Amino acid sequence: MSEAPRITLGHITLATDLTARTDRAFDRAVGLARQWNARLLIVHAVEERERVTDHPSWRRGADPVQAARMKLQFDYPGWEGVDTAIEVKVGTPQEVILAAAARERTDLIITGIAREDFYGRDDLGALVPVLAQKAPAPLLVVKKRPVGPPRRVVVATDLTDTSHAALDLALGLFGPGRLTLFNAFDIPYRGLAGDRAELERTMRPGVIEECRAMLVAAAGAAAAAQVEIIAELGAPAPILAKLVTDRDIDLVVTGTYGHSGIMDVLLGSTAMDIMSLVSCDVLVARRKV
Question: What is the model's pTM?
Answer without folding.
Answer: 0.87
